[in-house]
TrEMBL record:
Start and end residues of each Formyl transferase N-terminal domain: 6-187
Pathway(s): Purine metabolism; IMP biosynthesis via de novo pathway; N(2)-formyl-N(1)-(5-phospho-D-ribosyl)glycinamide from N(1)-(5-phospho-D-ribosyl)glycinamide (10-formyl THF route): step 1/1
Protein name according to UniProt: Phosphoribosylglycinamide formyltransferase
Tagged with keyword Transferase: yes
Name of the encoding gene: purN
SUPFAM superfamilies referenced in this protein's UniProt entry, alphabetically: Formyltransferase
Gene3D superfamilies named in the record: Formyl transferase, N-terminal domain (3.40.50.170)
InterPro entries reported for this sequence: Formyl_transf_N, Formyl_transf_N_sf, GART, GART_AS
Amino acid sequence: MSQPLKLGVLGSGSGSNMQAILDAIDSGELHAEIVLVLSDNPEGYILERARKAGIVAEVIDCGGYKTKFPEEKQAAVAAQLKEAGVELVCLAGFMRLVKQPMLDVFPERILNIHPSLLPAYPGLMAWKQAVDDGAQESGCTVHYVDAGMDTGPIIKQAKVPVLADDTADSLHQRIQVEEHKLYPEVVAAIGQKLRQ
Ligand code: GAR
């Protein structure tokens, strides 16, 4: 059996997608290991989830900037991920734009999950954008990260109907059910390709 794929996860919030990846690893569906979890939000539950699972979890200090991910900080994060042996970086609810130098250090090795059928509804609260727009259908997308906002090449999507009585929250909950299946599945497929 090959070595498990070493994953680094970046998130800002609850970390349910990171948990789904961990659960898939535990159940044997995903031959991988999360070696480092980083969050720009010290309060993010993702950090606690990771630590409970015995994973090194640290805060990215963005120096008081609310949304900016300073270039020198991206260089430091890229170096930290490399140092930990990370082969594939998974953005899981990470709310800052990843650009160079991280993209240079991990070319085609950074994935993101987004809660819409991209290219529809990029950006913040995509589930609310879908409800406000009267969309009949939404879903989630796993894609490679490029320097744009939710613009990189799409790997796989899962569809979710928007119901007549959906609120932004109820739609997001149903999208998350699909996210938790889609993300581990895509990571497993990429892991197999990288090990060929
Ligand atoms: C997820 O729904 C993810 O798709 C979304 O944030 C949520 C994080 O949940 N990401 C974005 O909107 C990125 N543009 P989680 O912390 O429970 O995984």
